[in-house]
Amino acid sequence: xxxxxxxxxxxxxxxxxxxxxxxxxxxxxxxxxxxxxxxxxxxxxxxxxxxxxxxxxxxxxxxxxxxxxxxxxxxxxxxxxxxxxxxxxxxxxxxxxxxxxxxxxxxxxxxxxxxxxxxxxxxxxxxxxxxxxxxxxxxxxxxxxxxxxxxxxxxxxxxxxxxxxxxxxxxxxxxxxxxxxxxxxxxxxxxxxxxxxxxxxxxxxxxxxxxxxxxxxxxxxxxxxxxxxxxxxxxxxxxxxxxxxxxxxxxxxxxxxxxxxxxxxxxxxxxxxxxxxxxxxxxxxxxxxxxxxxxxxxxxxxxxxxxxxxxxxxxxxxxxxxxxxxxxxxxxxxxxxxxxxxxxxxxxxxxxxxxxxxxxxxxxxxxxxxxxxxxxxxxxxxxxxxxxxxxxxxxxxxxxxxxxxxxxxxxxxxxxxxxxxxxxxxxxxxxxxxxxxxxxxxxxxxxxxxxxxxxxxxxxxxxxxxxxxxxxxxxxxxxxxxxxxxxxxxxxxxxxxxxxxxxxxxxxxxxxxxxxxxxxxxxxxxxxxxxxxxxxxxxxxxxxxxxxxxxxxxxxxxxxxxxxxxxxxxxxxxxx
Length: 576
Known about the structure:
Protein name: Lipid II flippase MurJ
Mean pLDDT: 80
Largest sheet: 2 strands, antiparallel
Oligomer: single chain
Main location: membrane
Low-confidence stretches: 1-29, 246-257, 560-576
Radius of gyration: 24 Å
Helix content: over 70%
Number of helices: 23
Number of strands: 2
Transmembrane segments: 33-54, 82-105, 126-146, 158-181, 193-214, 220-239, 259-282, 307-328, 349-369, 389-407, 428-451, 457-476, 496-514, 520-541
InterPro entries: Lipid_II_flippase_MurJ/MviN, MurJ
Membrane topology: Multi-pass membrane protein
Order of helices and strands: HHHHHHHHHHHEHHHHHEHHHHHHH
Structural class: mainly alpha
C-alpha cells in the first residue's frame, strides 16, 4: 500500500478494491461505537456551542455593537484564523490520516517499533517551535496586522492591544489541535469534544469577573485563558493513549513499516485553510469602511448561522478517522460509501437549520441578543444578514465533509518503502482545494465590491455565500479527480431533494413565525412548522436522510424493535 495514491487526471477513476464482508458482530460493534462516539461528541459540542452563544450574548449585553466591539472583533481574527488552521481543519486534515496510517502499520507489525511514537517524535518538536514563532510574530506585528485587516477602524489602538493578547492563543490552539487529532485517530472522542467547553468557560469566567474593570479587553484576556484550558484538557488523555502500547526495543533496525515525514504536505493544507479563512479578512476589510457596528452585526449573524453548519459537521468529525483508516488500508469503496453518507446526512442537518433561520431569524436574534446595549435596530440588521448568510451554509458544510478525505490521500507521513510521487500532475492536484477556494474568493470579492456600496452588510454576506458555493461545486469535482469514485448523480440527486424540502419548509415557516410578535412564541411556532414541513416534504420526496430518522422515531414511539439507523451506519453496503 502506498500513501501517495495515483491521481486520475483525465477521465477514468480507478476501480476501488472491494473490502471483505464484515461479520455481523463486528458490524454491530462498529455501529455501537459510532452511536456512542456521535452521542458524546454531539452532547459536548452542543454544550460548547451553548457556552459560546452565552459568550456572544454577554458581549452584546455588556458592549453592544459599536467601535469598541469592532476593535475586539478585529483582534479576534487571530484566534478565528488559528482555530481552523490549528484545531478544526488543517491540523486535523494532516494529523488524523498520519496517526491512522501509524495505527494501520502497528496492526500489521505489532512486534516492531511503535509507528505512533515515531509520528510524535517526527512532528511534535517542529510543531512547538513553529507555533511559538507564529505567536510571537503575531504579537509583535499587531499594529501592522490591524492596519492590514481594518484600515478604517475607529479605534485602532484598542484593536492593537486586544490583538497582542489574543496572539497568545496560537501556541495552545496548535497543541490542542495536535492532541485532539491523535486522540480521534485512536477513537477517543470525549476529551477532544470537550475542548470548546473548556475554552468558552475560560472566556466566560474572565468576562463575568472583569468586564467592568477592563472593558472589552476582558474578552481578549478570556480568549487567551480559555485557550490554555483547552490544551490542558487533552494532555493527560494523550499521554494515556501514547502509553497504551509499550515501546519495542527495535532501535537500530530500519523496519519496512517505518515512517518518513513529508514536510511539503503541510503547504497545500495550510494554503487551503488560510484561503478559506480569508473570507473573514475580506469582510473585516470592507466592513471597516461601513458605519460603526457593521462588523459586529456580521459577527453576531455568522455565529448564529454557523450553529446549523457546526451540527452537520459533527457527523464527519466522528466518521473521519474511519475514512482515513479505509484510505490508509487502500479500501476506496468503503471510503466512498462513507463520504456519500456523510454528504447526505450533513446536508439534511444543515438544510433543516437553514430553513429555520430563514423563517425565524428576526425572532431568534431578538430572543438571544436584544437586551442591554443591543437594540431593535441591531436586531433588524443582524437578522437580515443571517438570512443572506444562510444561503451559503450548505456549501460550507459540504466543503467540510469533502476536504477531509481529499487530504487523507496524501498524509504528512509515508512508509519508508513507498515511492515518493514525482508526477507533476499529482503534485499540482494537491493544490486543487486552495485553487478552488481562491476562485471562490474572487467571486466573494467581486460580489462584495459590487453589492456593498448599495446594500452594505447584506452585500458582504451575499459575497460570502456566492464564493463558498462556487468553491463547493469545484471541490465536488476535485474529490473525484483525486481518486475517490463518488457517484455525482446520486450525490446531487440527494442534495436536490433535501434542498426542495428545505425551501418548502422555509416558505411555510415564515408566515407561521409572523403570527405573533413575542420572540419566544414566534421562534417556537416557526421552528415547529419548519421541522414538520421538512419531515413531511423530505419523506414525500424520497430523501433517505429524512426517512431513516423518522422511521427510527416511529419505532421508538411504537416500541417496535428494529435495527438502529446509527448502528446500520457501521455496516458496509456491500456486506448487506
